[in-house]
Amino acid sequence: MLEAKQLQKRFQDKTALDKLNLKVEPGEIYALLGPNGAGKTTTINLFLGFLTPDGGEALVDGISVAADPVAARRKIAYIPEQVALYPRFSGVENLEYFSRLGGGRHSRAELHALLERAGLKSDAAERMVGTYSKGMRQKVGIALALATGAKALLLDEPTSGLDPAASHEFSRLLRQLAGEKVAILMATHDLFRAREDATRVGILLKGRIASEYHRDEFQSRDLEKLYLERLGA
Amino acid sequence: MSLFQLELRLMFRERAVLALLALFVLSLGYGIANGLELAERQRKEADALIIESSQFNKQVRDALERQALDPRQAMGSGHLALLPPPGFAVLSGGQADLLPSHERIILWRTEDPSEGKIGLANPTQLLTGRFDLAFVLIWLFPLFLLALIYDLCAGDRESGTLRLALSRGIGAWKLLGVRVLARGTPMTALALGAVLFAALLGGEGLSLPVWIATGVVLAYGLFWCAVALLSNCFTRTAAAAATVAGAAWVIFVMVIPTLLNVVVESAHPMPSRAELVAKLREASGDAERRSNELINTFYKDHPELAPPGMQADMLQRRLAVQEEIGRAMDPIYKEFDTELADQQQVVERWRFASPAIAAYEALSDLAGTGYWRHRAFRDQVAAFKDAVFEFYSPKFHKRQPLVKADIPMLPSFAFREEESAAVQGRTLSAMAGILALALLCLAPCALRLSRGASGKLVS
């Protein structure tokens, strides 16, 4: 579903991604770990078509992002670290707006049902987003993914700043989406969530996947230790 | 709900938007009220002049039906040459407050320079003039419009909303296009509505010039939308986008028209008022001193007009003096007309340096208060003066009374309007020019937002 083939990106003289190869299948949650500057956000941006690769290609459901970014984005839902919504719109209005941008048309009742599914009650959904916590915004982001029936979900530090309960709730929703055969690529520093949720973990170092572990590997071993060892700390 | 409607809803969540719209409506209303007041004043003046003139003409004709009449009596306070008030004057005062809309032709009176010509100035000066509808549309409309559209995506880029929006699979062109359309529509609709409303109130009705005026205003609005798009494509923050949009307004609405005015004044300066008055006095004094010599020379040149015994009376001397003053002043008046025409030519040539100039020129033209209609009036008045002179001069000199047979030949002025096709040609070309400027602004946006490059907007 999500595939990076020999993906390269340079910023002036700095190599951000160095022939990255990566594949996330439907139903998989792939946690991309790595220190700051390893290339995690660059990878997400290349899948979104916000950056143009210097080599290789990013594919979403077989569509080359560089060749047709709009078509590729239609298959993706994206949840950034801070889900930036319009503060003067309510949750349901934001969902309607962003869903409409992707061509979706939903009734008010359907929008409420989607938000409810994402864990946002009706009364909260009608409140202005300016009053929302970060967790509530993330839920609107999840509802957006549900609304569009996205085949792939890109997450950039999604649990950063969430309290444990919100983080737990968020993980539950992710696993639910994975159960619906959505391919999920999650760039994160949250080793605990990665261990809990991911089906595969990749450690990105200097623009390359330095190591990759399947769930049974990092479940049986200490992920933090594996990660730190790989970093040479 | 469509994306357009959602964008509108989003915009109206900002309370300041309603305040801005209300303020714009007030400005438009005030502009229309001023225009109506001017149009009404012009109409009343014209009506009074027409009534007075037709009553006097009727008296003359009635008197001629009964008996012969001294031509001085027939001339009375002068033959009236009147520029009829334009039907769409409510749109723009134009040059109406600078140029005389009527003239009384009296052969023995020295022309008073304060009545007209020296008060003329080039049309761009009028950009700083009257608070009429054209002023609101040219000066304030872009400001109000930019207040709503200056931040099409720059603020969203800062907050991160743009990333989320573009990740939804919408093209940057479409997103910004729908947004500028939604945000620009209320203000533009008010501006267009004001033009139509003014036309209905002013009695012009929904004529072709009114529709062309709405086209010009629409094109002008589109130009500013293109400016907003351009600034949003190439700036990173809302503050920077606002600065660029504000600077564009200052440059296009204030700086370029002022610079053009300076250039026009420098390249084709008008004869100075003081110089004109001094020259007139000098010519009058000289002609008065030489009145005997002038009348004698005149009768030598025109023996057929000489009265019996070559004894000229006061009026005949006055005519000879006026003719001499006219001869002396003619080059200065000609210079004035030439300079004004040259100024207008420069303005015409450079009007597309700023859409404000092109739009203002077009609106004044459509309102009937622009240069060209006044120019036609002045030309026709000059021809009328000649006709009056041709008719009366022999009678004054030969001391011939007017008789009943002269009634059909009595000079009268009827303004012939310029061909409407000429006005339409000028104004439609102005509209096309403004649209071309808008496209010029959109070209770099097209490159910036082209397929695959839209990511540059968020990064």
Topology:
The complex is a heterodimer of chains A (233) and B (459).
Chain A: E1 2-11, E2 14-24, E3 29-33, H1 40-48, E4 55-60, E5 63-64, H2 69-73, E6 76-79, H3 91-101, H4 108-117, H5 122-125, H6 134-148, E7 152-156, H7 164-179, E8 183-187, H8 191-197, E9 200-205, E10 208-214, H9 215-220, H10 223-231
Parallel strand pairs in A: 3-8, 3-9, 6-7, 7-8
Antiparallel strand pairs in A: 1-2, 1-4, 4-5, 9-10
Chain B: H1 3-12, H2 15-66, H3 71-75, E1 79-82, E2 102-105, H4 133-149, H5 154-159, H6 161-166, H7 172-201, H8 208-234, H9 238-267, H10 273-289, H11 291-301, H12 314-350, H13 355-367, H14 371-398, H15 420-448, H16 455-458
Antiparallel strand pairs in B: 1-2
What does this structure look like?
The complex is a heterodimer of chains A (233) and B (459). Chain A has 233 residues and is α/β, with parallel strands linked by helices. Chain A folds into 2 domains: 2-75 and 151-231, Rossmann fold (3-Layer(aba) Sandwich); 89-149. Chain A contains 10 helices and 10 strands. Chain A has a 6-stranded mixed beta sheet, with helices on both faces. A 4-stranded antiparallel beta sheet of chain A has the order 2-1-4-5. The longest helix of chain A is centred in the C-terminal third of the chain and has 16 residues, at 164-179. Chain A starts with a strand and ends with a helix. The model of chain A has no long low-confidence stretch (mean pLDDT 89). The longest helix of chain B is centred in the N-terminal third of the chain and has 52 residues, at 15-66. Chain B has a two-stranded antiparallel sheet. Chain B has one domain. In chain B, 70% of the residues lie in helices and 2% in strands. Chain B is mainly α and 459 residues long.
